[in-house]
Amino acid sequence: MTAVNKVAIAGAGAVGLAAAIQLAKAGVEVDVFEAKPELTALGSGISLQGNALRVFDALGAWDDIRAAGFAFEGLNLRAPGPGAPIVAELPDVKTGGPDYPAAMGMPRPALAEILLDHAQRAGANVRFGAKVTGFAETADAAVEVSVNDEPAGVYDLLIGADGLNSTVRDALGVDTKPEPNGMGIWRAFVSRPAEVQRTELYYGGPVYIAGYTPTGEGTMYAFLVEKAQDRFGVSDEEATRIMLEESRAYDGPWNAIRADLEKGAHANYTWFTKHIVEAPWNRGRVVIIGDAAHSCPPTIAQGAAQGLEDALVLTELLTTRDAVDQELWDAFHARRLPRAKAVVEASVQLAQWQIDGDRDADAGGLIFGIAQQMAQPA
Ligand SMILES: Cc1cc2nc3c(=O)[nH]c(=O)nc-3n(C[C@H](O)[C@H](O)[C@H](O)COP(=O)(O)OP(=O)(O)OC[C@H]3O[C@@H](n4cnc5c(N)ncnc54)[C@H](O)[C@@H]3O)c2cc1C
Fold this sequence. Notes:
Layout: E1 6-10, H1 14-25, E2 29-33, E3 45-49, H2 50-59, H3 62-68, E4 70-72, E5 75-78, E6 86-90, E7 103-107, H4 108-122, E8 125-127, E9 132-137, E10 143-147, E11 150-155, E12 157-160, H5 167-171, E13 179-191, E14 199-203, E15 209-214, E16 219-227, H6 236-247, H7 254-262, E17 267-276, E18 282-283, E19 286-288, E20 294-295, H8 303-320, H9 326-356, H10 363-374
Parallel strand pairs: 1-2, 1-12, 2-8, 5-14, 12-19
Antiparallel strand pairs: 3-7, 4-7, 5-6, 9-10, 10-11, 13-16, 13-17, 14-15, 15-16, 17-20, 18-19
Helix pairs in contact: 1-4, 1-8, 2-8, 6-7, 8-9, 9-10
Flavin-adenine dinucleotide binds next to helix 1, strand 3 and helix 8.
């Protein structure tokens, strides 16, 4: 017995696909509508903490994820300047428990392909070029969903996993929206020098943070976090020039990164955002999860992990109860809101300390406290 028989999901990002996998595995009919014409996952690489890996295991996707990514433990801090000396080697908390590595880096397109494959194999119907444009609840507790301005079907539930600029969130009348936090990030997918075995961060120098994360045998993504600027119209050549310029203060593996940039590695730019929608995340039979409900600067790399946990908890409730009622929503919000909010607030605080140049702040203590909290299952 499940609380739903037929569900529509807006968005085929990691969060929408995770929800689709769990529902389809439980025998629920699932239609996933994705606005983009095909699966693309920009942004080069992603860092997935143990608690995200634990979710992939629950989905049945862990073996594929493990094979496609680069597992590592700990974090190195290096200093700017000649030789890029390692100034600290910090241990990680295993937020997924002892069965999973502390973290794993992987190319975003590989993650997207694995989750799409699992969703389709579980029986979910995924439609691309299909933007959810509206919905209306019917008198008999169902939701009529419109896609590309045409009626697309009647469902027991609509899950809005449609990301930062969520159409579903706006249509629900939720006013809380992502706001810039004042930081922008350059990212490039590059080759991995053999000495890079874990994430390494450089504090100090011309940008707030310079760093890189291994994503595979021969690959990693490199990033520079700067004061947010209007960089969106810059040409590819200009983007490369900016990344080269801003990284000159960093030695060590940055020399290899610059060599890749000079050979044409693509530099991608975006701003960090922050928001957390207060409870409830649902109105009747429509609910938002993932980046639609919360976002934060990736200062502790927990954004996707939180969205994946939203998907896991929501689908667990939907597949183990027999009604979509207030008790279900109360249980969902009690398990998800405090946890997602703690991550957003800590991530925003860490970023703000960087912006303020506050060197006395206890960043390590805050990160450790959140990691301890995430080590408890969602
Ligand atoms: C610079 C940066 C670095 C980050 N690094 C990390 C990290 O290292 N680790 C981590 O855990 N998190 C990280 N995050 C956060 C992470 O990327 C997000 O939390 C996660 O990707 C959100 O997934 P999602 O499925 O909710 O949203 P998305 O991935 O945005 O997916 C939403 C999907 O919905 C589609 N869509 C939109 N509107 C509609 C509509 N109306 N109808 C149908 N489809 C629609 C979109 O096309 C999109 O495919 C980072 C974020 C940023 C900005």
